[in-house]
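Lab meeting prep.
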Amino acid sequence: MTEQRPRRSGFRRVGASTTRPPDPETLFKDLRKAPGIQYLWSHQADILREYDERYPNKRDVALELPTGTGKTLIGLLIAEYRRRKFDERALYLCPTRQLAWQVGEHARTYGIEARVLLPREYEGLNDFHLGNAVGVSTYSAIFNTNPRIEEPKTVVLDDAHAAEDYVASLWSVSISRNEMGPLYRRCLRLLEPEMEEAFVEGMLDDDASPAVRARVDMLPHPRFSERAAEIRGLLDEGLDERTAERYPWSMIRGHLHACCLFVSWQGLLLRPLVPPTLTHPPFESANQRVYMSATLGEGGELERIIGVPRIERIPAPKGWEKQGSGRRLFLFPNLSMGGEDVEEATALAATESGRTLALTPTASAASVAKERFSSRGITVLSSGDVGESLEPFTSRTNVALVLANRYDGIDLPDEACRLLVMDGLPAATNLQERFLLTRLGADSLLRDRLRTRFTQGAGRCSRNDSDFAVVLAVGQRLFDFCAKRENRSGMHPELQAELEYGIENSYDLDPEGLLELVRLFREQGEEADTVDQNIRDLREKAQKIPDPVAGVLMEAAPKEVSFAYDLWRKDYAEALEKARGVSDSLSGGRETAAYRAWWHYLAGSAAWMAGQEQEDQDLLAKARDLFGRAARASRSVSWFAELSREVDPGARPSSSDVRTARACESVFQTLSGLGFHGRRFDRKVAELNDLIGKDDSSSFERGLEMLGSLLGFESSRRSDEDGAPDGVWLLGDGLAVALEAKSDETPENAISINTVRQAGTHSNWVGNNCHVATDAEVITVLASPRTTIKENAAQNAGDLYYVRIDELRDLAERLEATLRRIRSLTSDAEREAAVEVIREELDRAALLPTPLLGFLMRTPLRTLPLSG
């Protein structure tokens, strides 16, 4: 797509005076606009006056402009005003090329001189550099190692929250398993001595289970520093001119001390905690940066995303406190349906609607969604198909546009699209966020971010007052998030009302019932009028309640960003003080415990680096103390405690504490997957009781596998190999329980020598076939209905243990009761609080790893009564 510019003839007058507009409003009146554009809306004028009176000299300013408020015009007017008033080169940034062309077209209708500047041609770049026109481009145009657009003095960042990955990518090296498999494996092998052996082996396993593929961990700074030189050499060699990752590598290779290394089965991510944008001249040199977003959030996420310590905020226009834009009917199929029915309902709605926008958090989730749509005969489009224009999507029917991590920056008003599928919780969109959410459990940090993404995503297909769309919120975790009142109470009252109405109308639906509701709403008849009025009534009762944790996080954000810059320039003493300031501001309360632990760890890392650099034992002692505080504040990251031992070998963490942390975190993950609301949990425990209650070996072994998983172990069933256990329960790489089950035997006879010999090989089998450390504790347990043992069997029983079949069934019943109690106590709790409740309740029921092992090992097999 190329701009058409009129040809000039004759000489141009030089030195002609240019009128400098006194304010943005006056500028708007003087512009030669398209006939249909005559006036500013009152709220647009109010915002421009507020900006002109209070913010023209502020370096960083954010505007919250909800959907339908005309934020493009406001952003372009500010850019054009500063271009004319202050002779500044003004640049308007968009997330995508398609949006850049769209903004360029808007500028033309508003009478604003603008040039769309996109690679490779960058046509019109000279006009921008001369200050004759506003430049319109994408974030990637300046956030790269060799930007063609130089030193803009005004930068307007549209859809600022959508900029996260575009901005951070300049300092983020991603080593994908699929695209750079050999380099990925070489990196893992290099890091293997510094990481848990079982974790690394799982990452290297091409046939890893879904549970292993879902894991993410981080190499702590003290361990990473031991391998930094080797990593630098390996990446210097591996990231050559054939890979785009060489560009961000050139930005961070000299700053590895300030970077975090995250590890997952899908790939590695090496990046600083916060993107150091103020070290990048095209961004730092601006006199003013203006950030625009439909939802700014209240927890300082914009500062963390952009890498700016403090951003002034201009609040949303008056009158938008209650009213939203358009009407949405939310439906939650997971509330009343299982997996296959949810897929069927989604496919029926998509076929009925003709055009469907599907938003997923990650590329892997998008791949799954694409397969589901295409298997139903629906044409699937991706981001590459709409890079320049949405026309390939809006001109078709029976089509689904599937996008990963695109919750802002795409507009589909009116008949362009009436069905939005939000497929999955908009979380863990990159490995750093995934670590903070799933490994650390810092829900309080991400809650505001998730609210913001959800709000932005839900508005993609309802873009004006008369617009309407159906929103299918698919996935148990997304439903659980929306079901919690404390999550909804921080949202706009209109959205609160729509969600409450949607939840109540999602009970007792089957696919056909859901389709009927979609049809009734799309017809916009009397039924839709009733829906609208009901939501309006709910809206009047709703209030947006400030999230107290978000306020604490907003206060901490400037210190967090400053810490990242201190670390970048190796000012470890200042970094330590900033990190301690953050942890102090997060003090008290369960909701911030996990994030407080993270900042204790970061403070400890800064102290450790300072101590190493200065050879200062007092700083190393301080690091040890801070790592210990991190371990006490959060039980979910086992290496917090291990670091204190590594800094001081005399301080050894309890293996019991490490096992407890792992088990509680695993139970939380399992319950999250099943849902803290809805029927999936009931179906799961009913299946467990049915399987473990049967005597046939196949059913009972499947029951054992489920029992181990629900107890917090990584559980697997018997292998087809001879001599393999009937089940294995793993907890990290240091503990394995091998199970030999004889549920199908008659209780009258005695345990035989053959059974003992069979069980006696399991310890070696686990060591050879499972991801366990060489010094792992492997316990072999024989489960049998028999209560006596033959003498020759007892003489060969060695270290084998015994438990009766009915005792395992009792254990399953006790676990079910405990998990039900946990669900009732944590249905509305944040992750940090939920994990603590899990620990307390499992402890009360003697189901934590230590008492559970005591139960499994209380009867050595050799001590059974000998048969007559």
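Slide two material, second protein:
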Amino acid sequence: MLNLTLMKNILFLSKIIFGLFLSFPLLAQVSTEPTIPNASESIKITYDASLGTTGLEDCNCDVYIHIGAVTEGPNSTTWSIVPFDWGQDIPEAKMSKVAGEDNLYTFELIPNEFFDNPSGQTIYRLGMVFRNVDGSREGKTSANADFFVDLAQGFAVQFTEPRGTRLSLEVGEMFRVKAEASREAMIKFELQGEPVKSASGVKELFYDFEAKEAGTYTLTAIAESGDETDSQSLQIVVFGASEVAELPNEARLGINYLSDTEVLLALLAPNKKLAHVIGDFNDWQILPEYQMKRTPDGEIFWLRIDGLTPKQEYIFQYLVDASIRIGDPYADKTSDPFHDQEIIQDGRYPGLKAFPSGKTEFQATYLQTAQDPFEWKNIDYHKPAPEELVVYELLVRDFDEKRTYQAVIDRLDYLQELGVNAIELMPVGEFEGNLSWGYNPSFFFAPDKYYGTKNDLKRLIDEAHGRGIVVILDMVLNHAFGQNPMVRLYNDGDYGAPTEDNPWFNRVAKHPFNVGYDFNHESDYTRDFVDSVNNYWLTEYKIDGFRFDLSKGFTQVNSGDNVNFWSQYDPSRVQIWKHIYDRIKTNHPEAYVILEHLSANDEEKELADYGMMFWGNMNSDFREMAKGENRDFNWAYHGSRGWQNPNLVAYQESHDEERVMWESLNFGRTSPVNIRQLENAVNRNQLLTAFYFGIPGPKMIWQFGEFGYDEELNNDRLGIKPTRWEYLQNPQRNRLFRLYQEMIKLKKSHQVFTNPEKVTLNLSAAIKSIVLEHSDLDIVLFGNFGLGNAGNVPVSFPSTGIWYNYFTGEELTLTNTTVDFNLRPSEFYLFTSELLPTPDSGILQEDFVTSIPIEPFDDSSFSVYPNPSTGKLYVQLPEGMKETNFRIIDLTGKEIRGGQSRPGNQILEFDLGDIKAGLYIFEAFDNRRVLHQRFIKN
């Protein structure tokens, strides 16, 4: 079995491409003399800069070795002792150039003497990377990883052809085996314990093994030098040639259930020689009757298995070329040797079988005949048009502390109350480890077991549909991680980079910001796989569409680390996405297709006009505005980009960015308004939210943004975040939640927010406005994004006549289309041309009229009297409010009186003789709080 600590490191470091588990001679990129280097003896390392990443090829420069000692174990990739700093002119690290060769460099050392190792740790390996003097150019493996050299600990013999301890052959094949000793010795080969060849005084010996009959053979190399002896064994498995037969009609790749007792398994593995099925049904034995047939084109291995017990779960694997153990890439359930035990112990998945430890290794998969079909209850439900979507992005892991599909079901009432009509689940496909964002996928057809069963996921989708909420799945098809069967079929070592012959993956990613291993989307193999994944989830789980992660990466145009080049218009990428979109729409014409593209506008425009939707990242602008700065965010509107269709899913925040409220509370301006105080931060975020929803087009909320979630993202970017459901009990944060409710309700109820006939955006100045016009309803939204009071601000309306303050229902009669308003910081108004139902009576209307909270006060310290009043009005200000601003406004927001009290003057007097009868609001405010009280003028 693999070292468990090493495996866990591989599973959890989701942003790192790991070094390769390679021994020398590394295809001549790096070679050593002697071939089997010893930690206590002199080693000459030769580096060929023309191979690998070729960053130093023909550099005409000094080349330095960056080297480290690996002491944690023979499979570790951790450099424990590193003597040289990167990017420094260190003479001791400078390599010698081979005379007459442009790209060959050498370096000599005795490892046990070279490294500062006072505790005498065993040096198992050398890790190395090569560089120029400042490190701006470097040489690494062809997979862009570190080089590693394994070190012998004393006298040793090793098989160097083939590398490793296993070899598989077909009957009739011959293989020349080579064994090398670390110094001259007597070397001999024994086959099945019988001597077959020997030689004395040599450092290497060859043996031609002829595969005459099927079976398993052990070839042992033994070396003797004086009193020292070492040996290594090679297991040679000889198989009969695979039977050639066409794949039966109607069969597809993966698991085909033929009856309650029979399955047909089909594995795509081009250019592999043979494959066996091993599993519970044959006690994990490699048996002739479980050798798979091969199609005439050599592409697919397949096998029928009968005699299975109905409804019984069987764990199984494919054993390819007698050495590679993988699960079925199309299976809907996996068995993991490292993480399933935690799921079992926590009772997270009823009846989950333990991994068959001791019988096999690496990830396996399940099959089960006669499964009971899931009974869908909610087949007919309304799917919003793309421009009507209000999407709630949700991570099952962090949405509820139970971290299950069922926990999300239990909170669907909350989402329904909020008003969203779509849930976007962050990736739920089987990923590496148990706790993850899900962007490290390993199996693309299997829901992750940590969250529950596949039927739990179906139940979640079905229950959401029953509430009129569609479900969009965050799909990761830019890359896969090392446990993926298609990676492991053609890769370096157990979990290393894909090799050049991998049908699906690039050896080195073609673009920046890639994680895992990069799919080659121009490959027919990848194209077919992607189409099958998409169709499967839309059909089997009845999801309503996809948000495709890192969609800009679906290209074979090599941009390297050049982000600007990667973002430019790419015609090949456009064609790839049109193909994917067309295939989705062929079988599922109502499916949503949303891309995380974030590329040049001309490319996004072409694809948006074709029908695809796009994430629109406005986080930077909204975070700046959340701090009190001013930004023009017109790019949140598809029309500002010149798009024909309203297919822009602009958002304030997503899982990838810091929270807007976090920005307000931690970095907000403190003068003249202190945004870092919660009530003022909520005011600011209400303002942002009203304008965000005022821009036509689909919307997205990242979970908990609706009540001002404020945990920092990058203190532990991928780590578990607390839920903070208790925030809903906070009156301040609840104001923000209620505003979200109201804006979502407006958007869902009126076409002017989704398909306006005219849009006028004035978003550059501190006083911003949005005017939307439609034959059914016009709206005018305006607000103060500045931090000071704005007096006599002219606001334009589309027409004269009666307008209605949405949050109060009060009328504003216009004889002129331009009206002056006075606005406090973060104050906004929303007027409609028709009278609409006002928010529920349980909501304080002032919360929306002014966007500023009512601070609790004692009647003895703050009062407005007499009430009602006929002439004089008196106001008692509370202690602590000095140099207070005040105003009297009517219920449309128009200011009747205004000014500032003198220091020490706690009682204000007003003459209301010239004010007409009606209901008014007296308002007093300073930098800390705002106080309101209604009064009646008779």
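Talking points for slide two:
Residues 1-27, 841-845, 849-859 have pLDDT under 50 and may be disordered.
The first helix runs from residue 4 to 12.
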